[in-house]
Amino acid sequence: MGSPSKKKLEAEISAAFIKFQRELIGRGPQEAKTYIVKDMVITRFKGVLTVEEKHLVSHDTGRKLVKQMRQVLREMYSQDFEQIVEQFTGCKVLSSHSDISTKMGERIEVFIIDKDLEKVLEQS
Q1: pLDDT at 2 (0 to 100)
Q2: Domain boundaries, given as residue ranges, for the chain
Q3: Higher pLDDT residue, 35 or 24?
Q4: How many CA atoms lie within 13 A of 28 on its CB side?
Q5: 3 state SS of 112
Q6: What is the DSSP pairing of strand 106-113 with strand 93-101?
């Protein structure tokens, strides 16, 4: 059987991230969209803030607290996130980066992988 299409692989990665986050913190993002671009896997999560976090981010101290807490959680589970990417792509994750926008309630994850997966998928 041939390799999955780029769109299908992107959708599978998004679904795996949502499932993992729901199991981890009891709720996941409302929406996730993954993009494979050359040697990067980029996922954009929408609707990531909890009701409590939405209240907190309306104050400067709360915004800093939410960002700090989310950064600690991301560091704790970075290997799990990287493992999901490796499992679905068959590529090694060289590095990963994350940031959250408390203003938009969105988070972005960027994974740098060891090959130009976009090119590999185009050739299969």
Answers
A1: 47
A2: 6-123
A3: 35
A4: 15
A5: strand
A6: antiparallel
